[in-house]
Amino acid sequence: MRISTQWLQDYLKLDIPADELAEKIERTAVEVDGVIRPNEGQKKVVVGHVETCEPHPDSDHLHVCQVDVGEDEPLQIVCGAPNVAAGENVIVALPNSWIGNHTKIKKSKMRGVKSNGMLCALDELGFDEKLVPKEVADGIFILPADATPGEPVFGYLGMDDEIIDMSVTPNRGDMLSMNGTAHELAAIYNQTPTMPTVDLHEDAADDVNGQLTVRVDADKHDVPQYKMRLIKNVHVQPSPLWLQIRIWNAGMRPINNVVDATNYVLMQYGQPLHAFDYDQLTDGQVNVRLAKAGEHLTTLDGEDRELLATDLLICSDDQPICLAGTMGGLDTEVTAKTTTIALEGAVFDAVKIRKAAHNHDLHSEASMRYERGIDHGMTVTALDAAAAMIAELGQGTVAKGVAVGRDEDVQPFEVTITLSKINHVLGTTLTSDTVLDIFKRLDFPTKLDGETYTVTVPSRRWDIHLPADLIEEVARLYGYDNLPATLPAGQPTIGKLNETQRVIRDSRKMMESAGLTQAISYSLTTEEKAKAFALSASDVTKLDFPMSSERTTLRLSLVSGLLDDLAYNNARKEHNVALYEQGRVFYSQPDQVRPKEIEHIAGAITGSMVKKSWGVAEQPVDFYQIKGIVAGYLKRLALAGTVSYVATSDMPEMHPGRTANIFVDETLVGFVGEVHPTTAKAYKIRETYVFELDLSALIALPKAQQQYQPISKFPSITRDVAMLVDDTVTNADVVALITDKGGAHLQNVTLFDVYNGKHVPAGKKSLAYTLTYRDQNATLIDDDVTAAFNKVLEALTEKLGAEIR
């Protein structure tokens, strides 16, 4: 909401710098984005009077103008604007002047003719192109006939104004109007505002009844009020300059005197209005209803829109003519041919308008106010004010009476609170007179009975319903910086991380120490990606109103987001990428109100983790490398249970021969493996290996007690064994058997060779292991190691059918 400080002077006498005023608003009411000074950085821009305008001798569109700028001699200026003509007052940038966008104007030649300055359009003075009136969008701006040549132009255009740009929070919709802001500032500075009055003159001989029939078919909650007025014999034309200035300084484009009047009243009262061309209505009939799915409406922006069943419609003879509270229809647009105006003033449900604006991407000044709420008690006043203004600016007449489709009995709201409660919450010792004065400044009629205040809250402050709301008002007006500062009482506690937080932080350090880089991806994705790589069966959670088609569903896995990150890097020629992400996934069951949030950790690697350098070649990542990262991570978690990896082909997104589920005892905690080539192709990535672990489950599992054990001072003894086994025998089977039968001094089992080729029978493979023995307390005897090793060989032969080589 842009607040003109010059417009504020109509309400209050505030001889205060704009920056100071903005700072006070921000400390007391709502946030302020800044103070806008339209003429800032511009100089030597004056009013000019075009005395003569001749065609350029060497151009078919340029004109050579002699312009009076209040000096002894007129300036010769070459101008290409199609609307320049003799006798006009124009905007002149003198030689060596500065105009918008920090542009300096110098003397020049145009097609061989000297030009001593420039005739300016509004956008060349820094106006947003969206705010420039359409009639001068392709040419220069024509100033009023009474403008004095040579005077600075800024006052004529409202550029000498200072505009406070407020960021109004949803609970303070009352400040989306000049009236509401004036009431707020009056309370802050303890003044009585001069509020606008309505001078409406009706044509007693012309009754609205019989000419305009209004019916509301929608629910009363959706449309609490709907009223219309009729203005006849209107001449639609450009608005006077003073009105255009107020409109564009408020951030809107001037259109014509009818539309500008409704926008002016919108900014003044905060009440959205809409003007229809009465002659385009069917027999003066208007009805309000919900749309039917599949109906269409062409809105004022020329877009044909398919309506939803939740949209509120304004219709004529049941044919859609306006999307209520959002945008009017093209068929009933006010044009230069319009002579009779049907003016709408209504209150619509905030949720309905918000959904319509979101669904159709039509966020307007009107919808913004309906979404935050409007003053239900000001609808008729605003309607009358706009009707009077249209009649005055368009030389028309207002028909007698208001066509009412639905009315509402709007009454002020009473809230009761005690002085002791206020002081207890704020920690103050305010007197009853101080609090009473604050309510008086707010213009809230108040009765005091002992220490109990009965406060009558007017309809313009619909955000106040509870005693807590009144306490906030007292705190704001008293000044937050005046509230006493006290230290908290009670027994202090030592802040520390809980177990879950500690493991999550340590997990990130472990992943980074393994060479992975942290990534943070979106929790929202497409439904197809959300279902991929899920560890457990779950329904998906969809958003009712997603921001885009790519962000519709909460994820069930972190891997899909990491693959998107890999694709982003691969597209930019980064082919060696190793990422991890720690975050939440969202599981949902049909009987759950909201999804269950579960902590996961996942990684994705493509290319090589070893950088190519002198003497070192890149080594593409494989299954065993990423499995080693997972195994190292799980080992550092010190799980009490046994970790095992079981081959699986149940995940369609993963390679069926290079994927394993990860178990701790009987609990499934994750998976590791290669992404299926088809999936990789869909993501436009190369060969990629991933893992995902249920971090919440890992944190909940029992942990082994970790104890320090010194390195043995005694030497180790190793034994190597090579064997032929069936292809069905896994390395895990062999290592488990050796560990079980290896004796008390067996410390490590390492696979150092796998062979399956020439000289090895079909269906067989050769495995070779190194077994390391060590005693922590003494030097091992070779005979003891040999005896233990022989037991291992016997077990391998008997239980696995191994042929020792």
Automatic annotation (TrEMBL):
Quaternary structure, from the entry: Tetramer of two alpha and two beta subunits.
Binding residues annotated for Mg(2+), in chain numbering: D463, D469, E472, E473
Family, as annotated: Belongs to the phenylalanyl-tRNA synthetase beta subunit family. Type 1 subfamily.
This protein's UniProt keywords: Aminoacyl-tRNA synthetase, ATP-binding, Cytoplasm, Ligase, Magnesium, Metal-binding, Nucleotide-binding, Protein biosynthesis, RNA-binding, tRNA-binding
Cofactor(s) listed in the protein's UniProt record: Mg(2+)
Principal localisation: cytoplasm
Xref: PANTHER family: PHENYLALANINE--TRNA LIGASE BETA SUBUNIT (PTHR10947:SF0), PHENYLALANYL-TRNA SYNTHETASE BETA CHAIN AND LEUCINE-RICH REPEAT-CONTAINING PROTEIN 47 (PTHR10947)
Domain TRNA-binding stretches: 39-154
Pfam families from the UniProt entry: B3_4, B5, FDX-ACB, tRNA_bind, tRNA_synthFbeta
Lineage of the species this protein comes from: Bacteria, Bacillati, Bacillota, Bacilli, Lactobacillales
Cofactor details (free text): Binds 2 magnesium ions per tetramer.
Entry's EC annotation: 6.1.1.20
HAMAP family associated with the record: Phe_tRNA_synth_beta1
Domain B5: 410-485
EC top class named in words: ligase
Compartment(s) where it occurs, according to its Swiss-Prot or TrEMBL record: Cytoplasm
Name of the protein in question: Phenylalanine--tRNA ligase beta subunit
GO MF term (any one): phenylalanine-tRNA ligase activity
Domain FDX-ACB: 712-805
Organism in which the protein naturally occurs: Lactiplantibacillus plajomi
Gene3D superfamilies referenced in this protein's UniProt entry, alphabetically: 3.30.56.10, Bira Bifunctional Protein, Domain 2, Ferrodoxin-fold anticodon-binding domain, Nucleic acid-binding proteins, Phenylalanyl-trna Synthetase, Chain B, domain 3
Reactions accelerated catalytically: tRNA(Phe) + L-phenylalanine + ATP = L-phenylalanyl-tRNA(Phe) + AMP + diphosphate + H(+)
